Amino acid sequence: MNAAVNRALSGNRNTLPPLTGIRFFAAFHVVLFHALPWLDSHLLLPVPVRIFLNNGYLAVCLFFLLSGFILSYTYEGHSSGGSNRAKFWESRFARIYPVYFLSLLLALPFHWQKLTSSTVAAVLLMVQAWNPLRPEISGAWNYPAWSLSIEAFFYLCFPFVQSCLAKVSRNTLLILGGFAALIAIFGHTPTQGLGTWDQTSIAGKWIPLPVLRFPEFLIGMVLGNVFLRDRATSKKTFLTTFAALFSLLLLSIPIGSWVSLVVLPFGLLIYCLASSRDFLTALLSRPLMLLLGGASYSVYLLQAPVRDYVRVLIPRLSLRLVAFGVPLTPLILILFSILVFRIWEEPMRHSIRRWLALIF
Q: What is the chain's mean pLDDT, rounded?
């Protein structure tokens, strides 16, 4: 791709509000997944609902696709060269580390006795999921942080991969995306969470988990680059609705590991939300959804510490509230995450970028 086209693609990029709004539903799906044992013991859940909740961990796949799409959309044309790469990594660090570190501080009282110095170092450096020889540390300290370790690997690779994708034709992009989708589907990569990766498989023994999940991130990157090339606004509401309904269907039926097929409607949903103007995109772009979407990162990372504090503190505050502790936890988590988003995440992101600019 020549420089003139590259500059044209880099300019006049609007924000994509629906992709912020959808993040909250993905994060909350993970929260409900972890709440399933309690829900199962207190409610008679219909089978499709139970399957849907049990597949909540697959929302991480949606996050990986979203990450690849948004990063390519944002940084295409600004990812090559040493200075651009450094700015990208600085931006990513400032974006994810403040809440990541806060989640570790909050979780520390519940886990410090089980932590070794090597585990602490790995988690602080965000490489806990990179070592197939020690899969047991991937979920150490704050369990959901394992996926941030994978994201850190993606961020490390992104500038180099994006520079390559920017040089190829649209048809080549589609071929690469199709190949990555085939790997994700037939390799069942979306199902490779910590519950399966640490088994006695060849992949679990020798292949770092971030490599197994990279096809999902690559699909998102390809879609982001194709979106930039097309730059077309569609009003085909049925495609967005179809992608959403197909995603819900695949997540609610008993198809075992073939639930990895969900990468297809997930990808279509992301592309349609970015390109269409319809009821669903309008709903996800509402101010409340943008606030919840902004807080979704905290919702995801703080879910385990908040559950632990509710479990410990509510009985001490009032025995009458014990029965309401678990049902109230999601609401407490959301409210606390909004607070963290407003007074910690955003201010710290801007402060870190200023500090890094002064240092470098």
A: 90
